[in-house]
């Protein structure tokens, strides 16, 4: 036969509201943790999109650098040609 001690039953009955309160707090904490996990997921998605955008911008910048370097060489040649024409023109004006 199982014998119940009245003191243990009374203590358990008294502790039920405290246990219920603690369980309620634990549930609230679990809800807040679940919300934080959802927010972290959104932040991670945004970071991933930003990384893709940065990679795209980096690729475009590299293409612009290559284009500018190629055009720089052509512009130097044009500039030298213009200075050659100006120098020859000044020489002809001086000797004419």
How is this structure best summarized?
This protein is an all-alpha fold and 96 residues long. It has one helix at residues 6-95.
Structure characterization notes:
With 96 residues, this protein is mainly α. The protein has one domain (1-96). 94% of the residues lie in helices and 0% in strands. It contains one helix and no strands. The protein has one helix at 6-95. It is rod-shaped.
C-alpha end-to-end distance? 135 Å
- Largest sheet descriptor: none
Give the DSSP E fraction (strand runs of 2 or more residues). under 5%
Q: What is the mean predicted local confidence, pLDDT?
A: 87
The radius of gyration computed from the alpha-carbon positions, rounded to a whole number of angstroms, is: 40 Å
Structural class: mainly alpha
Outline: rod-shaped
What is the count of distinct domains? 1
Number of helices: 1
Number of strands: 0
Q: How are helices and strands ordered from N to C? A: H
Give the fraction of residues assigned to helices. over 70%
Task: Pick out the low-confidence regions.
Answer: none
What order do the helices and strands come in, and which of them pair?
Elements (H helix, E strand, L loop, with lengths): L5 H90 L1
């Amino acid at each position: 036969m199982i014998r119940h001690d009245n003191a243990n039953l009374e203590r358990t009955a008294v502790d039920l509201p405290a246990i219920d309160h603690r369980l309620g707090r634990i549930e609230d904490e679990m809800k807040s943790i679940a919300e934080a996990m959802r927010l972290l997921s959104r932040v991670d998605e945004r970071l991933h999109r930003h990384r893709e955008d940065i990679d795209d911008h980096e690729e475009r910048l590299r293409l612009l650098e290559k284009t500018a370097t190629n055009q720089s060489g052509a512009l130097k040649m044009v500039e030298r040609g213009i200075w050659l024409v100006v120098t020859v023109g000044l020489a002809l004006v001086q000797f004419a």
